[in-house]
Amino acid sequence: MTEKDIRVRYAPSPTGHLHIGNARTAIFNWLYTRHFNGTFVIRIEDTDTARNVEDGEKSQLDNLAWLGIDWDEGPDKPNSKYAPYRQSERNNQGIYQKYINELLEKGIAYKSYKTPEQLNVEREAQQAAKQAPHYIYEYEGLTNEERENKYQEYEAQGLKPVIRIHVSEDVVYKWDDIVKGKMEIASKEIGGDWVIQKADGMPTYNFAVVVDDHLMDITHVLRGDDHVSNTPKQIGVYNALGWDVPKFGHMTLIINTETGKKLSKRDESILQFIEQYKELGYLPEAMINFIGLLGWSPVGEDEIFTKEEFVNMFDPKRLSKAPAKFDAKKLQWVNNQWIRKSLDSVIPKLADELVKAGVATSGDYQNRTEWYKKMFEIAGVDGIAYTQEIVPLATYPFFKLPEMNNELREVVSSDVAKQLISDFAQQLTNLQDVSADNVMSIIRSLQTEQLRGRDLWNPLRVAITRAIQGPNLPEIVALMGKEWTLKNINDL
RNA sequence: GGCCCGAUGGUCAAGUGGCUAAGACGCCGCCCUUUCACGGCAGAAUCGAGGGUUCGAUUCCCUCUCGGGCUACCA
User: What is the ipTM for the molecules in this complex?
Assistant: First the structure.
């Protein structure tokens, strides 16, 4: 018998935008698949109709694609052979019902008519008695026939059932976790019989996931730590249906630095969504780079990797067992590295930022690409964390002159300063070639024993840029040219 | 409360029964520079605690502490 082909899935719920935590799960599943030459599957888990968000699926997939993650099968790939890939559609085809019926017939599952209110009362009583909450089987000691009669009775009252699966009392579920190693959880810790089909006819997550992973021949399930406690339930279903259990791996969660809790969609204190980073001008390469290093580490000492490099060196054994905090500062650094590394492709984005901000007109960049390149360089693109940060840097003085204020006025108001500025303007007027070197020469020639350092530079800088600090002044003048510079000085 | 998982500088982390315990971000200082940024060079800072095992524990075992997860007709 040959080893089965590796098939791995990422299964988002379309409840909103792509969250950092989910993106991480997706990235590692993708890395795992591509490293081992497997097939990467995307499945949409939309069984909670109340939480589904319009366009949620599209947003998830778009953001995944933006990150540079590709998949072989999914709801948007028409010829995928395990279609459909949305659980709602699979439910409509009766896929889950078939196995629910099977379990019902085997007597492993049964109909339960307890209302949420009843369950609440039971739970609260258990908690008050310091017991672990667990489901109380309501047909204890009844024959099948008696149970059927009960069903009739409840139906007559107009009650809608859920289907629960019976959990054996003395089983220990074991698995060898890709990340955590040997795991075992006793069946009595599960909390009793649990729901596999909701009153609305939808399967629950823990059931649908097993059916789909089995039917889709999924071999490896890599997911967040928060699913550890679901694993025994799912193994129970595999056993009940007589199916092989896939290999599980539970990756640690990302912790919010501010709250110390797992990164949650409800957190306001940190940027949660890939979309937000995209908007600010983080590069997908940087996002993958940073996230790929959260909870996983390579062998060497390097920090900057392409996704291809990640694929090559990925090793599930190096997945960390300890939760990692999300350090936005390091992300900024990683993104800065990527901006500098891929400057050619970033420059048009920088120009876009200026257009979006209403600073530059669209098309301007195409007309004078070289000027823009030089301008971004002088403005300090080397120092930005994300592309949006270029806006204030480039706006002043290259697109707009800051307002004068008292502090600035004071710098240029003395007679000495006025004379200096006027001398500079004079020399600049006579200058043939306005290069940074030549401008520097002019400024040097204006330097005296008394007039040097800030006394020399600040008045000139204010006269030309209306600021007392900023990028290298001669470079600014060289870029602006003679006319523009002189106009600024005259407008003073 | 119960069950599960974890613990190396502020953060991400490598690593080992014996090493001065890597590296990166951040921070501090210095240099470069008219200034900011960039860059360069240094620096501070870590094995949670207590017991074992051992000639020797950061490393192996136990307990504690702390942190996290789960405890749904959510996924």
Answer: 0.94
